[in-house]
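Sample A.
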Amino acid sequence: MTQTTTPARPKRAAKPNGQWKVDGKAPLNPSEEMKAADNGLNVRQRIEEIYSVQGFDSIDPEDLHGRFRWWGLYTQRAQGIPGGKTATLSPEELEDRYFMMRVRIDGGALSTEQLRVIGQISKDFARDTADLTDRQNVQLHWVDIIDVPEIWRRLESVGLHTTEACGDVPRVILGSPVAGIAKDEIIDPTPVIAEISRRYIGNPEFSNLPRKYKTAITGHPSQDVVHEINDFALIAAQHPELGPGYDLWVGGGPSANPRLGERLGAFVTEEQAPDVWEAVTSIFRDYGYRRLRNRARLKFLLADWGTEKFRQVLQDEYLGYALPDCDLPPQPTEAGDHSGVHEQKDGRFYIGLTVPAGRVSGSKLLALADLVEAKGSTRLRTTPHQKILALDIAHDQIKDFVGEARSLGLEAYPGLLKRSAIACTGIEFCKLAIVDTKDTMIDAVAKIEERLADHDGKLPRALSLHVNGCPNSCARIQTADLGFKGQLITNEAGEQVSGFQVHLGGTLAGRENGEAAMGRTVRGLKVAADDLPDYVERVVKNYSASASEGESFAAWAHRAEEDELK
């Protein structure tokens, strides 16, 4: 008897990923269709000639919910909508008729003149709102579309702009806040940042990327630009033959699928850096995954390719030459947030000021500009840690400057938690948020520091507390000692309340822990917003009781028993 066999079913063809160099440029989702139909940069003309004249109701929905981002504009959350509605309402139902506007500040460099212009715009057009972000930008709220052309005119009159501050584009370039002034700087990244910005920002060749694309460049040994969570990063390195230059990292990003960037083991000279940026960005543009938005960041391509293939494609297809190998730069020996008073290489001083939750105001920015000028300076820097630095302060002006800044709510010597506390925009203005962040964090930090003031046990040298209003991790919760991700939780009374999932022991490369690591989550551990001070006090005291001598909080949190973390 002859036995028949069923023929093997042919393998189902893999769906295309929307990689331009592999699958062609046919758009595979509505976002790609929008970008293919009209470049986001082109919407500026419509804003100036139509929308600002005819008002909010004249705005084409595709521009409103898409291309406006290319010019730093998002509709903000309508007031009074609770967090429980975030996932159930459409963007149109969630949004207000006003905008968040993001002022792009590549490298964080600001003059007092520029700061004063931002402050006056805030007072005139944004209800005196202003936030310092953890990407060195300034965000304004309550912006009316009819005022946008005048805001642009004022910003551009002093060399500022909002070009590609949002959208599927190269976002703001993070730069060392002490570039060009630090005594121990290895290489000044200012020329590289300026050249990348000049060549590529607003360039149509790079204004349609698969998703947002983040850059960080530093020449300081503290590695002060959170390079491990950027798509493209250069950190200072010394080559034995070529001298000072940069170590190349790619593919980092937090959000709902966090991934730390990886070294390609390649050394980049100052002269090569803009070309290498163009090449890596072109790889993302040409090979990045465009079909699914949740897989459209460079980190997913790197995960599939690996660093060896990525470097090979970079050199063979895009640069046309091999990059020298590079050793891992030394571990930082100091904090990279630049809080406090520090001597510059010219003998003057820079002073790092902590701004609670990054929340300032136009009035406060104007007052700070006046203060800096009164002490003989005209230069400031924003930081990736929601701080602002005043540069070029003479030694005999330090005491007065610190005291007068404190009267503005800007602290040069913040407490343990206030120094490293970061919060995203939260439910006050963000359409994605579920809970309040800034007020919650400011209140919690004040209470915790008061309770720990008389604590007799040991406390960590540093302790970062980051609060985020949704899973997207704009406040980098996975890389904080204490990271809190907003969500609605059910309390013991059965009520649905604002709360947080907890991430513990995250860290970026630094003096505390060496290598970067994502935080640990404890199954079932959630904290109500009202209980946040109690929780942090409890877990810090547990650390105090059981950490070994010199052990950082992050190291302890990764080895502690679950009961100690609850």
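Sample B, a different protein:
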Amino acid sequence: MSTDTTPNTANRGARTRAARGAKKPHGQWKIDGTEPLNANEEFKREDGGLNVRERIENVYAKGGFASIDSTDLHGRFRWWGLYTQRKPGIDGGKTATLEPHELEDEYFMLRVRIDGGQLTTEQLRVIGEISTDFARGSADLTDRQNVQLHWIEIESVPEIWRRLEAVGLHTTEACGDVPRVILGSPVAGVAADELIDPTPQIREISERYIGDPAFANLPRKYKTAITGHPSQDVVHEINDISFVAIDHPEHGIGYDVWVGGALAAVPRLGERLGAWARPDQVAEVWSGVTSIFRDYGYRRLRNKARLKFLLADWGPEKFREVLETEYLGYALADGPAPTRPTGPGDHIGVHRQKDGRFFVGAAPLVGRLSGERLTKLADLAERHGSTRVRTTPHQKLLVLDIDEERVESLIQGLDELGFSARPSLIRRGTIACTGIEYCKLAIVETKDTAARAVEEIEERFAGTDLPAPLSLHVNGCPNSCARVQTADVGLKGQLITDDDGNKVPGFQVHLGGGLASQDRDEAGLGRTVRGLKVAADDIADYVERVARRYDADREGEETFAQWAHRADEEALQ
């Protein structure tokens, strides 16, 4: 991989146009001042999001849903991991036409923050019990290593917080214009081949800065990823700031610094600053980059308020200069780029740990869990001598510290819970967002749709499996929570017109996207073909058709992504 930091615009996403004699301020605090330029900035100045906890505990939990102030409900609640969920029965055609209060139910999604994806079995059991007691048994594993619960009533939130915090968990800044959960290598501290255990860096950032009012009013959400594993298992190219472990030829093991990645409706892959950070510099560098976003990020327009837009206008050289001169007060060492990842970053299957024991990675179908299954998973792990479980950025679960003679018994127990340690290639590569079942932004259903498609594809390839690993990402709207632009087959939810002229749930198709892996040097966005859409009921047909065409047409060891980018449009239909 080249050390050149010049952006490849065809691969990394569209650049923003430089302002020409800008007539309106961008809302950059260090340039334009801090006068609020939209309603979101106004409510944050009036009262910080962190302050709403006291009102939740002492006013709203006692007075019920009707007592909640509208600005708190639709704004500040997010700082504590709370969103109102979608009211059942509202179809996707009304998503963009109804007001939030018309779409929302009097129940909440509650996001449990799990920095680094590290859980004890005690913590896992508490989440499962909360799900059973307060969330109608719901639990979804996200592709950011969190667990989301649904059907939460405001009256229950203080008790939920009490139970979570009693075991070291919390929901602080799980949502909102804040530093979200820190993605971390799921095999931190245990993998035999890791370069460095990033856990100390993750903990330092979390303990120093999460919940700090100095970083609790950012232009928009802000995502962090840190890995010390050579598989580069934290999707670092699509985070606002990432640290990827490398072995520097002069300074030893440290981290390559990346900034400005994000997907959503305007995707942009992150870029290297060309800078290397020592482990003891990581927290300071994180603070510096986050401060740049706070002070120079664009706040006037919400759809331009991510760090990727600032990086697109500045470029990595200027960004690094501002970081070093205005925020760090010293120059970072230049560093080489990471080498190609050594293997899959989902860690599915059985792997030997550095201590001689084993960890086992398993795939729950599309991240759908339940309180009962979480509790049973904690019991299963403990019966096999483990007290540690990890979540992954691929909606997968790992059980650590298993003695060799107990591995097969654990795998059998995981299978009985619906967590496959030896999944089919399509089950292994499928993730799905929350979808219209709970999300107010969604247009189509995702979880059940994706699960049905996986099961149908498995039947069609029974005894043979797919011709090669294939990632299928299913998203309910254009915001790409399921990372559709970086999947072999990415499906972006929308209403489409069927052959009879009816509007039906469907998806726009993205093909051949992917992050750096053992099969590709660099991340790249998927290809779209004009008019290529698939109905929700036809996903299995489409995936089977395109997979078999790839198998017939591929040249040598050509990957699906390579084929998809060179194939004629007819072959992709």
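Observation for Sample B: The chain is about 30% helix and 20% strand.
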